[in-house]
Structures are given as structure tokens and as C-alpha cells.
Q: What sequence folds into this?
């Protein structure tokens, strides 16, 4: 078997292992090591690499942003800011039809600005918003669907753990990626709110309406969320202004949400331990996958697969837009069954060089940002598509009276919005890029 | 006997994870202090960023991540795809779980052994970090705590998976 064939065959083997419920990191480490052995004929190279590879991966300065962002998100869930965000959003939107669900989405967007994880956002906002939604008579499908979709804003709106990983793999600028994610993230929130508005008009009586809140009270409620705004501006603004590195920004963010959690009185010793343990298991899981992806990609580069594949795709004369569509569809499909992080780690090192060969009529830098945002959105859709949508499970487990089937159905309209948004952003790259261009033109 | 082993594994995993968390919090504080210090540089009053803060962050982070591994292993926190779990016989799934537990323990043992050799290499080269001049082997040594805990806990997980297979309680 030639090296190239080996590389091709490694995909089905990897997928088989993954579908047999092997931990994804384990499957990648195993296939990577076995493949390298088959190419070189000795395990010594892998063994020698392992002397420094594990430590090198775990101590990588760029990666150290990940545990810090996770800790920041954990502290944010203890800060009570989810409740004040929801109250503020409700005072502005609550009197509209479907307004309470819209407020939940709006609050998710706000929370996403200080939390880089979808599951944490969905779980935290679910705790605050689900009882309210029930009180105002929202059907379980709409309530859980909207919250599951709103949870994805945790990652669509910067800071975002997935974007950090993409930035490192595709060698893109994290600062600019965060800026590029901002407008599509807000569009996502807007899209979800529109979906709710259409839903309650198609099936009227599906929700009661709150009384209109006077402006004075609205402003007071808005005033309560200042820590969120402050932390977001300092973290994302500070990175972009070059005041600190992304890792330092994450440390500042963790300190900010940590102080907010202390001030709220929610942070007991037991809660702090929980926050740490939860950060610990997510970080360990992510770093083990990064390690596995590194080993697997080392094997693939030994076989020259990424180069061969990109040359091949370039030679075929495919339309770039055709390839892009196929790639995005593939992500959507895999996202239904695979976890978003593993998918990004596994595919970006192979797909990105191929995509770079294609000419989309923009500079490589712009392309890297735009493609990153598109990938971010399509992998996040996987969180709210059955059968394996983690956000659906998280929210459904909190809404005991709603069967999972209702949650699946409730999420579908939001999935449709997501797909429409991807199509729009793919067709008009400027929507994603204009803010980056604008800030660049100030010449920081 | 099993009960004691389980408690032992839980203590190792939890103590290491909390220690890793403590390191993380220390890094948060150090980075903030360093940023504040850097803000004073233009005043030229002898206050500046912490020298070698990047090196410290790297070493601390590696130690923390290694220390987090046992906890993730004990709690089955590894990402996996549960799509076909329900379609397959229970015994089949449990057998696979045992197999994967063995594989994970194997990787933990190999990884820790190589980390130890890596530490010896760094020790004999006398390699230090770029700015703070911290000997690199010390970072490896800090990682070995977590890695050793990972080996112990993943060995325990083999036992746990075998018990699940024969229908004994966790």
C-alpha cells in the first residue's frame, strides 16, 4: 500500500473507531501512531516525538488561552449576570409577541460576549429563562428550541474557544477573527429573534405577553449589565488595540468574571470547586484532542496527503464556490453526529490548505477570516441538530415536562435560520469583513 | 477493596484537578499584575511587567493540564460519539469500553514514560526558558505529577470497566 493510500484509508478507520464510541482523542492518537509506524516501519520516531510533544502541546503559549477562557465562562455562570441580562432584555422586548423567548435569545447574546462556550451559555440561560417561559405559557418546543439555539451564541459571539483553535490551526490572527465574528454573531441573534417572531405569528396564542416596561425602568435594568459590557470591551478591545496578548486578555476576563462572581455572593467554596473541576475536565478533554490531532496530522503530512489533495483539487478546475458548498455541507452533515471541537481539529489542517488554493477573489488573509467564520457557524449548527446536538440535551434535561422530540422539532426553525445565514455570509463576504477593514484602516 | 481503590482514585483525581485550578488562578493573578506593571513602564519609576511572564504561563499551564487529565479520565469526560450506542447490545458496548480503557491506560503509561525521559534529556542539556531562565526540566517535573496521577487513575478505570462488564456496581 502506498503512503497516499494509507492516508486515505486512515479516514474510514478513524471514523469506525469514533462511531464505536472510542474517545475521539484516543482514536486520533491510535490511528496517528499506527499510521506513522506503517509509513516509517519503526515506532521509534513516535516514541522520540512523545518525549517533547505532550509537554510542548500542553505548554504552548497560544493554547493557554483555552483553559483561561473556560475558567472565565465558568465564573461568568456564577456571576448572576445571566439573570440581569435576561431582566434587561425582557424590559426591552417582553411586551412584544414572543417577547420572553426573544429576551432569552438577547440575553444569550450578551452572555456569549463573556463566555466562550455554548454549553455553559445554554445551561446558564436555561436556568434563568426556562421558568419564565413556562410562566408565560410558551410551549416546551419553542422554549427549549430557542434556548438551545441561543446557547450557540456563546461561541458565535467572541470570545470563542472554537475560533481560538481555528486561528491556531489555520495560522490566522485571533484578534481579527474575533472582530470578524462580531457582526455574524449579532446577525445570528437577530435571526433567532426573527424566527421567534414568525413562529408566534404562525401559531398565535403560543405565548402570553408581558406589560410594557417604562423607559426609566428599562434604563435601570440596562444599567445592571455594565459588568458584562465592561469585561467584553476590555477583553476584546484590549486584544485588538494590542494592549495585551489574547492569553493575557483571557486572564483579565477570568479575573473580571471572577470578581463579579465574588461580588454576587454566589461563589461559595463548593461552587468554586465545581467551577474548577468543570474547567479541568473540559481543558483536559480539549488538550488531549489537540494532542491527538497533532499526532494524526503529523502522520498525514508524512504521507503528503494535504499537499497532494490541494494540488489535485487545484488541477480539477472545480469552481471554488462549488467546493466551498461541498465543504460546508460536509461540516453540516458531520456536525449532526460529531462534536464541533473534534471536527475543527480534525478537518481544518486538511481542508484549509485545499481551500487556500482556490481563488475566491480575495486576499489570503481575508479568506482565512471569512472561511473561519463560515466553519464556525456550520460546526455550531451541529449543537442543535438531532440526533447528537449537545445543546438540545442540556436544555431538554432542564425542562422535565418537554419530551426530547418536541425539543428536536422546536430547534428546526432555528437550524433553518442558521443555514440561511451561512448562505448569506458565504455569498457576501463583505458582511463579515467590513468591520475588520474599517478597524484596519485606522491603522491601529 | 474496590471501594478503597475507588476512593483512592477519586482523591488523586480531585486533589490534582484542584491543584491545577489553583495554578490557573495564580496565572490569572500573575498575568493581571504583569499587565498593570507594564502600564507603569512609561512613568519610569522602576515598576514593569513581570519578567518572564510568558515562560511562567507556559510552565504553569502545562502543569495544570497534566493535573487535569486524571479528573477527565475518572469522569469519562472525553468527547465521543454516542450515536450507535443504543443500537448495539449492552455487553458489546461495555466490552468496547473496557478495550478503550485499556488503550487509554496504555497511552497514559507510554506518555508518562516518555515525559520522564524527556525530562532527563532537558536536565542533561541544562536547557532553560528564554527570558526567565527557568530550567525546562522543572516544567517537565511539574507535569509528571499529573501524568503519574493519570496513569494511576486510568489503571483504576480498567478495573471499573471490567466490573461494569460483569455487572458489578461502580
A:
Amino acid at each position: 500500500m502506498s503512503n497516499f493510500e494509507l492516508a486515505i484509508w486512515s479516514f474510514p478507520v478513524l471514523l469506525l473507531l469514533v462511531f464505536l464510541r472510542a474517545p475521539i482523542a484516543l482514536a486520533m492518537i491510535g490511528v496517528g501512531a499506527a499510521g506513522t509506524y506503517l509509513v516509517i516501519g519503526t515506532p521509534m520516531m513516535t516514541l522520540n516525538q512523545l518525549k517533547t510533544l505532550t509537554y510542548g502541546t500542553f505548554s504552548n503559549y497560544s493554547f493557554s488561552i483555552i483553559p483561561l477562557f473556560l475558567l472565565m465562562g465558568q465564573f461568568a455562570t456564577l456571576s448572576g449576570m445571566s439573570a440581569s441580562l435576561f431582566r434587561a432584555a425582557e424590559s426591552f422586548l417582553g411586551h412584544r409577541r414572543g417577547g420572553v423567548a426573544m429576551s432569552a435569545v438577547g440575553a444569550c447574546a450578551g452572555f456569549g460576549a463573556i463566555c466562550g462556550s455554548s454549553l455553559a451559555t445554554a445551561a446558564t440561560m436555561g436556568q434563568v429563562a426556562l421558568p419564565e417561559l413556562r410562566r408565560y405559557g410558551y410551549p416546551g418546543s419553542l422554549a427549549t428550541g430557542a434556548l438551545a439555539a441561543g446557547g450557540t451564541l456563546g461561541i458565535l459571539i467572541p470570545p470563542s474557544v472554537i475560533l481560538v483553535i481555528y486561528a491556531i490551526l489555520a495560522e490566522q490572527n485571533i484578534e481579527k477573527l474575533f472582530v470578524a465574528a462580531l457582526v455574524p454573531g449579532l446577525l445570528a441573534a437577530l435571526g433567532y429573534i426573527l424566527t421567534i417572531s414568525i413562529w408566534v405569528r404562525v401559531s398565535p396564542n403560543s405565548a402570553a405577553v408581558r406589560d410594557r416596561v417604562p423607559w426609566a425602568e428599562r434604563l435601570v435594568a440596562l444599567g445592571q449589565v455594565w459588568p458584562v459590557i465592561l469585561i467584553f470591551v476590555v477583553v476584546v478591545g484590549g486584544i485588538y488595540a494590542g494592549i495585551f496578548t489574547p492569553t493575557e486578555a483571557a486572564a483579565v476576563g477570568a479575573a473580571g468574571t471572577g470578581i463579579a462572581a465574588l461580588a454576587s455572593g454566589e461563589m461559595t467554596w463548593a461552587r468554586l470547586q465545581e467551577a474548577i473541576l468543570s474547567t479541568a475536565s473540559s481543558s483536559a478533554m480539549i488538550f488531549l484532542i489537540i494532542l491527538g490531532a497533532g499526532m494524526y496530522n503529523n502522520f498525514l503530512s508524512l504521507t503528503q496527503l494535504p499537499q497532494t489533495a490541494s494540488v489535485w483539487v487545484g488541477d480539477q478546475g472545480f469552481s471554488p464556490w462549488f467546493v466551498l458548498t461541498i465543504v460546508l455541507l460536509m461540516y453540516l452533515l458531520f456536525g449532526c453526529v460529531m462534536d464541533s471541537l473534534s471536527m475543527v481539529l480534525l478537518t481544518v489542517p486538511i481542508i484549509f490548505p485545499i481551500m487556500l488554493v482556490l481563488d475566491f477573489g480575495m486576499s489570503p488573509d481575508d479568506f482565512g477570516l471569512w472561511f473561519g467564520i463560515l466553519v464556525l457557524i456550520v460546526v455550531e449548527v451541529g449543537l442543535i441538530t438531532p440526533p447528537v446536538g449537545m445543546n438540545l440535551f442540556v436544555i431538554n434535561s432542564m425542562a422535565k415536562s418537554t419530551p426530547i422530540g418536541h425539543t428536536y422539532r422546536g430547534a428546526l426553525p432555528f437550524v433553518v435560520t442558521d443555514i440561511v445565514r451561512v448562505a448569506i455570509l458565504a455569498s457576501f463576504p463583505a458582511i463579515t469583513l467590513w468591520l475588520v477593514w474599517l478597524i484596519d484602516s485606522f491603522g491601529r | 477493596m474496590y471501594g478503597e481503590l475507588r476512593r483512592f482514585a477519586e482523591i488523586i483525581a480531585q486533589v490534582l484537578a484542584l491543584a491545577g485550578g489553583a495554578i490557573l488562578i495564580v496565572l490569572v493573578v500573575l498575568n493581571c499584575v504583569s499587565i498593570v506593571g507594564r502600564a507603569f513602564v512609561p512613568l519610569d519609576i522602576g515598576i514593569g511587567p513581570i519578567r518572564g511572564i510568558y515562560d511562567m504561563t507556559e510552565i504553569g499551564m502545562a502543569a495544570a493540564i497534566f493535573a487535569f487529565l486524571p479528573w477527565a479520565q475518572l469522569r469519562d469526560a472525553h468527547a465521543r460519539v454516542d450515536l450507535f450506542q443504543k443500537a448495539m447490545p449492552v455487553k458489546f458496548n461495555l466490552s468496547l469500553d473496557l478495550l478503550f480503557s485499556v488503550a487509554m491506560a496504555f497511552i497514559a503509561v507510554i506518555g508518562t514514560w516518555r515525559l520522564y525521559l524527556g525530562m532527563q534529556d532537558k536536565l542533561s542539556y541544562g536547557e532553560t526558558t528564554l527570558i526567565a531562565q527557568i530550567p525546562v526540566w522543572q516544567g517537565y517535573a511539574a507535569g509528571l505529577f499529573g501524568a503519574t496521577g493519570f496513569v494511576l487513575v486510568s489503571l483504576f478505570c480498567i478495573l471499573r470497566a471490567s466490573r461494569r462488564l460483569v455487572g458489578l456496581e461502580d
